[in-house]
Specification:
This protein has a three-stranded mixed sheet with strand order 1-2-3, with no helix packed on it. 34% of the residues lie in helices and 11% in strands. It is elongated and about 70 Å long. 9% of the residues are buried. The mean pLDDT is 88. The protein contains two helices and three strands, in the order H-E-E-E-H. It folds into two domains: 61 residues, Ribosomal protein S19/S15 (30s Ribosomal Protein S19, Chain A), CATH 3.30.860; 31 residues. It is α+β, with helices and mostly antiparallel strands.
Length: 116
């Protein structure tokens, strides 16, 4: 649900205070815990460290991020792949075939160099 137009967008005043007098190119990462803060045009180009509950994730703000919230770019949950044992076997076979193809290509290129 969006915030009412009467209230306006929520931009953390402490966060805006950290931006005053700094340039986007020279400013270090600005750490923040305010995930609900909306990205305003003044923030474009800055590097933010948005807290995800465990660490600060680096987010470089671009023009198309304006209007979104900082928390949208710092996921709080880690995706663990599905599949289990069967998936591991498939990935192992794929890796082995890639290694075999690479070694065959390497042997072929070495054989071509010897002929010349």
């Amino acid at each position: 649900m969006t915030r009412s137009l009467k209230k306006g967008p929520f931009v953390d005043p402490r966060l805006l205070g950290k931006l005053v007098g700094k340039s986007a190119s020279t400013a270090p990462m600005i750490k923040t815990w305010s995930r609900a803060c909306q990205i305003s045009p003044e923030m474009v180009g800055f590097l933010f460290g948005v807290y995800n509950g465990k660490t600060h994730i680096e987010v470089r703000v671009t023009e198309d991020m304006v209007g979104h919230r900082l928390g949208e770019f710092s996921p709080t949950k880690k995706f663990v792949r599905h599949g289990g044992k069967m998936q591991k076997e498939l990935e192992q076979k794929k890796k082995e075939s890639e290694i075999a193809a690479a070694s065959a290509a390497k042997a072929e290129s070495a054989g071509g160099a010897k002929k010349k």
